[in-house]
């Protein structure tokens, strides 16, 4: 399993670079490792900077959807936004309300290097916005209101 780096590690604040070759051994090995790490930590998304790689790649695992999203471009966003609770594997035990676009359209490359277009709404749209922010060095705590610690 991959080690998840946590705030305030500066890697989380860098802008990540596009993946040049999706089919390279490095990327093809990294994808299942990230998927496995996300599932083991019970996350719904995990971005490459969170495992110490400043590249534009993230995985999403939510209900029956397992997505690998590389070099994403959000090409359409709803005017409508909504608040909901978010957390992050890199910011353990903190939660807060974040306002996000309700729906969006994203273009990206999948694990086979094929260009995809996905329309998403609700939680999936939220996860895509949260993970895309990671690729730009943005964390949900930058946008959250009512940040709270969860103490176990
Ligand atoms: Co996160």
Overview in brief:
This protein has a single domain (10-149), classed as Peptide deformylase (Peptide Deformylase), CATH 3.90.45.10.
Topology (elements, then pairings):
Blueprint lengths: L24 H16 L4 E3 L9 E6 L2 E13 L3 E8 L2 E11 L1 E7 L5 E7 H14 L9 E5 L3
Antiparallel strand pairs: 1-2, 2-3, 3-6, 4-5, 5-8, 6-7
Task: Describe the 3D structure.
- 20% of the residues lie in helices and 39% in strands.
- With 152 residues, it is α+β, with helices and mostly antiparallel strands.
- The protein has one domain (10-149): Peptide Deformylase (Alpha-Beta Complex).
- Strands 1-2-3-6-7 form a five-stranded antiparallel beta sheet, sandwiched between helices. Strands 4-5-8 form a three-stranded antiparallel beta sheet.
- The longest helix has 16 residues, at 25-40.
- It is globular, with a radius of gyration of 15 Å.
- The two termini are 24 Å apart.
- The mean pLDDT is 96.
- Cobalt (II) ion is lined by residues 88, 90, 130, 134.
- The site of cobalt (II) ion (CO) has 4 residues, from α2.
């Amino acid at each position: 399993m991959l080690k998840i780096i946590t705030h305030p590690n500066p890697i989380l604040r860098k802008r990540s670079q596009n993946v040049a070759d999706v089919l390279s051994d490095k990327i093809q090995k990294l994808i299942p490792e990230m998927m496995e790490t996300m599932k083991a930590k019970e996350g719904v998304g995990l971005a490459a900077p969170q495992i110490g790689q400043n590249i534009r790649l993230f995985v999403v695992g939510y209900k029956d959807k397992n997505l690998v999203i590389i070099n994403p471009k959000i090409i359409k966003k709803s005017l409508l936004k909504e608040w909901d609770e978010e957390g992050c594997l890199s910011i353990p035990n903190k939660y807060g309300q974040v306002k996000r676009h309700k729906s969006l359209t994203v273009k990206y490359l999948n694990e086979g290097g094929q260009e995809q277009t996905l329309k998403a709404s609700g939680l999936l749209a939220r996860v895509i916005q949260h993970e895309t922010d990671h690729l730009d060095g943005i964390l949900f705590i930058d946008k959250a209101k009512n940040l709270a610690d969860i103490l176990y």
